[in-house]
Amino acid sequence: MLANWIRQTRRTYFGNATAQRDFRVQLRGNRSIIVFGLYLAILIGVAYLQYSSVESQARFSLTNIQYSLKSFYQTIMGLLGGMVVLITPALAATAVITERQRRSLDLVFSAPVEPRYYLVGKLIAVYRYIWMLLILALPVAAACVVLGGSNWLDVFTAFILLSFHGLAYAALGLYISAISDKLLGAIGRTYIAVLLLVFVTYVWSGAGNTFGATGRERSFTVAMSPFSVADGGNTFTVLSGIEVPNWILVGALVLVFVRMCLLGAGSVLSDGREIKNLRMSWTVIFAVISFASRLGPGGTTFFSSGRGPSTSFSAQGTASGLSLPTGTEAGMTAFWILFPLIFSIFSISAFGTDGHGWQRPNGWFTPKEVFSGTPAGALPYVLLLTTVTFGGHFAANLYLGSMITLGDYLSFYFYAISFWSLLWAVTRLASAYCSGLKATQTSGVLFCILFLVAPPLFFGIISAGVDNPFGQPIWNFYALRPVLLVGTETFLNSLTYGVLFLVVAAVFYALSVDRTKQMTRRTEEDHA
Amino acid sequence: MLEVKKLRKEYGGLTAVNGVSFELQPGDIFGFIGSNGAGKTTTIRMISTLLEPTSGTAILNGHDVRKDPMAIRRSIGYMPDFFGLYDDVKVWEYLDFFAALYEVPARERNGVIDNVLELTDLTVKRDAFVQSLSRGMQQRLCLARCLVHDPALLLLDEPASGLDPRARSELKELIVELGRMGKIVIVSSHILPELADFCNTVGIIERGEMLAFGGVSEIVRSMQPVRAFTATLLRNGAGAISTLQRLSGVLKVESIESDLRIEFEGSVEQQAEIAKALVDGGFGLLGLREEETNLEDVFLKLTTGAVN
Questions:
Q1: In this model, does residue A295 exceed pLDDT 90?
Q2: Confidence of residue A310 (pLDDT cuts 50, 70, 90)
Q3: Dihedral angle sign, alpha carbons of residues A446, A449, A454, A457
Q4: Are A209 and A222 in contact (CB under 8 A)?
Q5: Cβ–Cβ contacts within 10 Å for residue A510, how many?
């Protein structure tokens, strides 16, 4: 078995036929010459303009020159980051969808090929292309070193980081390509997702620079943006007394991200056969993130004082002087760690037909179906994720010897369970009344907008201009109020909201039961 | 050997394939006949592991499609009803890509590619770009792709659609040759004459259900308990009709121009009595031939044309 695994792994990563074919096609014809030519022309053009500016600065002072040369290097690396952001999604977003439209996917998957082999091959082809672009830019980067704007180690780490960012965007593009039906839709969605990711990582990177330590010791988040590789590349984070280069930490994160994207794409391409792997991986990841959020480089919960975003809350004055019990801090942190589940709760919980898919409503709570991807396993899976996330954070606190107030923490755990159960029940109700999976998911998204996005906008308008706007009673009607660091949070709040959510969830579920039975009966009759 | 056992596939409320079963031996060329939407492609896709059956299974040389799909894939060559060819690749690169997917060792690939190109008569197009080939050649290239790993079972879904008569004839010869090589070949089509010529086994499917399965002549015979003969006589007349009507097994005799049409249901001995009576009666028997029922007649008789 081990020998087979080694053989398959070697086959997947070395000499992957999909990678070879894609790379061959990428480099064939005039297209690649035009792309490379254009790319080099832009790089050289910008470098020349920037250097002219440096030359003009040279008349003033040595400090200015140093600053200008550093700025020259930053511009070149920023430009390379921009190229990676622009070119990688285009390559990845088209990779699977064009094969689907050409209908060659069936031919590939009628061969003894797992989705992993195919997707890794696609990824390798894009990654090779990124490296080609980086290597083409090496002479320009070398000019930065020769002129004194940076050193070779900076360039090396910056290139490594850029390739990691490219890898992450490629994986995201492949996932979106796998779930899309139309080429333009895939490209559009990939660019939106990548730009969103670039924005989020840019903010994190900025936060890392602002609140992290100075010098080469910085929070690893500084290296998470493609536009900060010049500054964040050659930095390190101290973990248990060891200086770990940030590019290694970012690389590890990117690998996890890539794995999840490929598993997601694989579960689509394999007709759901990879879904068990995907769900188990998410379970582990949530547990690890929630554990690491207490122990990791941040070294604290998001809402406590010290390094990290909490400082910004204090700076704004909203939470200034707010003394939260540690159970509340930990509960809020755990809740927000799990919050990205909002992007998939409706897919996880929906049932019904769509095109060739048929998610039969095979029950509402069957723990043994937890990793199977069927509707009966949805609620157990959501509860499992909630439990491991809260459990992971609790375990980290225990490990650190932090005394958290268990009652508070459990009340947030209860709140989280109720919140996700409510969204699950909304999906059940939508599934029972909507004509297909897509309609159900759209209904779920609309509910989220009404339930979570619209109220703060509305309440914000109402309470604008008054002292302590977030302290206004109207905010008590907002569902996420217990986990927002505004006003005075109480033990009662999260419990009250939790009970309310559970009651509404129970009503929604009850309303869906009859309709679900009718739908199932009609389907069975059709079969008969 | 391929055993298909009660294969069933449901899409939502639709049962595309409902309990299809059959068995094929090496060398069998199986014609899978049905109207568009009858369930042929779904069945083939389940056997090729591209679709998971709702229930039932198929077993090829001991490997179950549900339990061991990878082993099945190593033993089959699947040619869908579309080409799915890549642009910007040459013929040999296309075959090399699939040979690699089928785990043909790198050092053997060139030889394998040469062999399949020779078999499919594409050797001269080895270095041509795929998109420059004619439709018939592209079809042959698809077949070559299915053969790079020497599969035991070939699944050809509507292989002759869109081909000109010459290309069809060449494809037919190729399929017969593959059958001779001991491969099981499943060919689906709704064009019956193209199958009746070279398939030794056929299955008729409608609305996901297998209505008939067996050898071509066997199916025709089973569908035709009442056989019809045409007798050409030198002296046709009422005497001949009354003579024949007295014979056992003869159901109906009618005169059609100078011939007699005899409907008969009986043994071969009784059949022999027909010729004897016409000769002994002095009617001048010039010829006696059985009216043939072909696959098309059987198909039309069995099916209603309804689809799911």
A1: no
A2: very low
A3: negative
A4: yes
A5: 11
User: How far apart are the C-alpha atoms of A367 and A143, rounded to whole Å?
Assistant: 61
- Compute the Cα dihedral for A375, A376, A380, A383 and give only its sign: positive
Say what angle helices B165-180 and B135-147 make with each other, to 10 degrees.
10
Q: With an 8 Å Cβ cutoff, are B93 and A21 in contact?
A: yes
Q: pLDDT digit string (tens) for B28-51?
A: 999 998 888 889 999 999 999 988
Specify the pTM: 0.81
Spatial distance between the Cα atoms of A525 and B175, rounded to a whole number of angstroms: 42
Q: Domain-by-domain residue ranges, chain A?
A: 1-273, 299-528
Tell me if residue B188 falls in helix, strand or coil.
strand
How far is it, in rounded angstroms, from Cα A485 to Cα A393? 19
Q: CB count, 10 Å around CB of A522?
A: 11
Interface test with A, best of B97, B148, B149, B153 (most A CBs within 10 A): B97
Contact by Cβ (8 Å): B65, B224: no
State the Cα–Cα distance between residues B187 and B182, nearest whole angstrom: 15
Neighbouring-strand partners of residue B155 = B78, B186
Interface contact flag, A28 B88, Cβ < 8 Å: yes
Q: Complex ipTM, two decimals?
A: 0.80
Is A106 close to B52, i.e. CB distance below 8 A? no
List of domains in chain B: 2-221 (3.40.50.300), 225-292 (3.30.70.100)
CB contact under 8 A, A107 and B145: yes
DSSP secondary structure letters along A401-436: T----HHHHHHHHHHHHHHHHHHHHHHHHHHHHSSS
Nearest-by-CA chain B residue for A528: B15
Q: Which of B13, B48, B145 sits opposite A523 (nearest CB)?
A: B13
Assigned token pair, A341? 């589940």
Around A123, how many Cα atoms within 13 Å sit in the side-chain half-sphere? 31
How far CA B2 is from CA of A38, A244, A344, B54, in Å, comes to 56, 58, 41, 19
